[in-house]
Specification:
Layout: H1 5-24, H2 34-45, H3 48-62, H4 70-90, H5 96-117, H6 123-149, H7 155-161
Length: 162
Amino acid sequence: MIKYLPYLFYMILIGFHTVIFADFTSVWGVKINLIALLIAALALYKSEIEVAWAALALGLVSAAGQPALLGWHALILVLLSQIIHRSAKRLNLDSIWSQVGVIAAAVMIHNILLSMFEGFSGIFERIAVHALPGVVYTSLIAWLFFLIKDKKITLQKIREMF
């Protein structure tokens, strides 16, 4: 039971981000794609079955506000998680930049597919205005996450600076 607690936390985090925090974390209308970031990070570190079930559950939670896309969103996230998990085994992902590159590619694919579900009229404008800046913003958050995870940014180092 304890091993499922982080996934419950992830579902609560995605729910709160979708409903409440998305507007607070947006910068000039560009939003963090937290669901793609979380699924890609899980796909890099967890097992194949865990990632698939987590992607399915998180996809259902994140698309709860859009019932027409509910199953499609979950399917996209499951396929994306499996592609990332299988390619991560074949790639050398020791450096932070390679991990951030995988996250950026996953976020870009996710953003483009979601833009396609909104319709094909004006798709290039939506990609240029929302998807590409969203990839940059989410990649910066992923970069900070990996710096903290690899202990390159610690509370001790921040205290030494000030």
